[in-house]
């Protein structure tokens, strides 16, 4: 871990700043072995140049399984991963570049890649950055990250690999210009938390792109779909549209890689979208979207409603205008009298 990276990292649990506690081995700016701590003295170990933010608590359940599973296959991962693409007659490099293009990268961007693994995409992203750009790669598996670090350290550019979980990102709000995640979401212990963390750490106007396997509804009953689900039940997981955060704007979704991987891309906005909901609406109901939503009163009987409709139509004004005037007038009369 580079000493210069420390100011950009936060304790994943408290989001507080971190400090160096001790250094056992260092080479230049790089801490190869050492310890960093949060404001309460909680320690995180740096080993082989990689800080490990994963606690015992994080490893309960799915996360522990993933960390163990990828420990077992890390050393053969790069030799075998092209199968993920050639199963569908796809070219790995072409597809990876296509997904990375969705980030709309500029050479000075500060980027976070989640579930970066051995760094096949990390290397492509780093090559697109100039010396004022920066790439952080996060993964739950230090074994996968070891290979990632080897790839990135060949370039004299700003990069850092960090061991952590996508569900508690060790970064401050609004830190990155863009965020990328290929084939990680299905492993997140909480997809809702993971997707909300993505939006939290990206600046307003920044871009998020994530891709995961999924046999879409229209292919579920095909032999093609059934073969894939039979081989890996993750193909049957729903595309997590309900967990896309409210901050997402201009959301795109497309099924790629054999039509059985969704790729979502969106821009991060500020809170929920705002509507121009005070525009007066023409027609018999009248009012605005806001008056119709916020101005609801108790209901009336069917008979009163019919009489009111006749009276309103005789007056030739909208129901909103008539009721608003009527109720206001009566209320003021009562309150003053
Ligand atoms: C299929 S690999 C994809 C690796 C890489 N993105 C690629 O394109 O080759 C899935 C990766 O997700 C990581 N992962 C699993 N659970 C995670 C979690 N909770 N947070 C972050 N990464 C996780 C695994 O360690 C593994 O490296």
What features would you describe in this structure?
With about 325 residues, the chain is an alpha/beta fold. It has 3 domains: about 1-50, no CATH class; about 55-270, Rossmann fold (3-Layer(aba) Sandwich), CATH 3.40.50; about 290-335. The protein contains 10 helices and 11 strands. The protein has an 11-stranded mixed sheet with strand order 1-2-3-4-7-6-5-8-9-11-10. Helix 5 (about 140-150) links the parallel strand 6 and strand 7 (about 160-165). It is elongated, with a radius of gyration of 27 Å. The chain starts with 18 loop residues before the first strand and ends with a helix.
Secondary structure topology:
Elements: E1 19-27, E2 30-37, E3 43-47, E4 50-52, H1 62-80, H2 83-86, H3 92-101, E5 110-114, H4 120-128, E6 134-139, H5 142-152, E7 159-163, E8 176-182, H6 191-201, E9 202-213, H7 223-231, E10 248-256, E11 261-268, H8 289-294, H9 302-315, H10 319-336
Helix pairs in contact: 1-5
The protein binds S-adenosylmethionine.
């Amino acid at each position: 871990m580079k000493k210069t990276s420390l100011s950009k990292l936060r304790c994943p649990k408290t989001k507080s700043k971190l400090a160096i506690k001790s250094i056992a081995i260092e080479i230049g700016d790089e801490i190869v072995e050492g310890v960093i701590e949060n404001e309460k003295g909680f320690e995180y170990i740096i080993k082989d140049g990689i800080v490990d933010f994963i606690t015992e608590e994080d490893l309960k359940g799915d996360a522990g399984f993933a960390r163990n599973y990828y420990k077992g296959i890390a050393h053969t991962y790069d030799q075998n991963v092209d199968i993920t693409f050639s199963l569908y007659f796809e070219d790995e490099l072409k597809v990876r570049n296509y997904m990375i293009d969705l980030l709309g990268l500029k050479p000075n961007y500060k980027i976070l890649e989640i579930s970066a693994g051995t760094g096949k995409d990390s290397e492509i992203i780093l090559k697109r950055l100039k010396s004022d750009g920066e790439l952080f790669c996060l993964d739950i598996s230090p074994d996968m990250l070891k290979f990632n670090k080897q790839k990135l350290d060949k370039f004299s550019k700003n990069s850092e690999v960090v061991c952590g979980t996508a569900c508690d990102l060790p970064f401050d709000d609004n830190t990155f210009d863009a965020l990328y995640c290929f084939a990680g979401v299905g492993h997140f212990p909480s997809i809702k938390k993971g997707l909300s963390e993505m939006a939290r750490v990206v600046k307003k106007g920044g871009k998020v792109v994530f891709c995961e396997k999924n046999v879409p509804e229209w292919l579920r009953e095909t032999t093609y779909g059934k073969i894939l689900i039979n081989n890996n039940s993750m193909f049957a997981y729903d595309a997590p549209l309900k967990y896309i955060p409210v901050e997402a704007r201009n959301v795109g979704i497309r099924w790629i890689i054999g039509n059985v991987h969704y790729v979502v891309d969106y821009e991060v906005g500020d809170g929920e979208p705002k509507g121009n909901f005070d525009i007066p609406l023409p027609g018999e109901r009248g009012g605005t979207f806001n008056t119709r939503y916020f101005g609801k009163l108790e209901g009336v009987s069917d008979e009163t409603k019919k009489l009111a409709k006749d009276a309103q139509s005789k007056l030739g004004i909208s129901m909103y205008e008539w009721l608003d005037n009527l109720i206001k007038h009566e209320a003021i009369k009562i309150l003053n009298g």
